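Hi V.,

Quick status before I head out on leave. The structure for the redesign project is tokenized and pasted below; the design run finished overnight.
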């Protein structure tokens, strides 16, 4: 709208300016060529002056109207911008509030889930002697899978460090074989605890064990033979039950 009115003013101004310039040129030519026509020249000057006042009278209302319209347009634009900004700010505030509620709810859900999982996992473990053990008699895993499973439960494969711990756990065993954390994967014949990273401290081997059959027995199981549980080195990839241990 601003461009439209400016165009009209420009055309009117250009026409008036062009006409006045033509008149001046014509008068100059008449004065220089024929003094007998000076009277007509004066009339042209009067006509130019009259036209200027006329054009001013015509343009002024248009200018005022244009100015008023422009103010109205500016006011509307300002109002629309203000309304749009307010709407955007409200939307942003609502989104922040919703996000905060969602974040708090998610944190609470995660905390509840972790607490529930801890309770569930801890529920698997029984206090035997001075430690807590989970004796799995259902799932058969290889030694590496069993170690991973115990880690998932927040513990590690059982590290029976004394005769007392061995005897206490043995009383709760029902399956034939379970994985413990002892292995000689690092160096043949040197048996380490996976839990401590140090050499295992207690062994109750079967007679003739460890024998590293096939040069491929690097993990240790507790195994029942003739109603007696004892240790045997065996292929780590065979699947047995397992015993996990954790601190409360
Ligand atoms: Ca071995
Ligand atoms: Ca063996």
């Amino acid at each position: 709208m601003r461009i439209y009115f400016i165009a009209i003013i420009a055309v009117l101004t250009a026409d008036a300016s062009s006409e006045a310039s033509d008149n001046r040129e014509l008068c100059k030519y008449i004065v220089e060529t024929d003094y007998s026509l000076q009277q007509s020249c004066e009339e042209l000057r009067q006509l130019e002056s009259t036209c200027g006042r006329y054009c001013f009278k015509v343009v002024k209302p248009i200018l005022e109207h244009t100015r008023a319209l422009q103010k109205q347009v500016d006011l509307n634009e300002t109002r629309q911008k203000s309304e749009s900004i307010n709407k955007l700010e409200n939307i942003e505030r609502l989104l922040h509030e919703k996000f905060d509620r969602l974040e708090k709810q998610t944190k609470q859900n995660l905390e509840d889930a972790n607490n529930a999982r801890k309770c569930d996992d801890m529920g698997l473990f029984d206090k035997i002697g001075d430690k807590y053990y989970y004796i799995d008699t259902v799932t058969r895993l290889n030694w590496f899978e069993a170690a991973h499973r115990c880690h998932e439960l927040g513990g590690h494969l059982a590290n029976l460090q004394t005769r007392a711990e061995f005897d206490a756990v043995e009383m709760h065993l029902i399956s034939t074989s379970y994985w413990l954390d002892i292995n000689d994967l690092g160096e043949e014949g040197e048996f380490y605890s996976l839990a401590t990273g140090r050499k295992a401290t207690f062994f109750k081997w079967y007679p003739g064990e460890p024998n590293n059959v096939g040069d491929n027995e690097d993990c240790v199981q507790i195994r029942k033979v003739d109603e007696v549980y004892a240790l045997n080195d065996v292929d780590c990839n065979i699947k047995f039950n397992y015993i996990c241990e954790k601190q409360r």
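Above is the designed sequence. The two ends are 79 Å apart (CA to CA).

G. will cover questions while I'm gone.

Best,
W.
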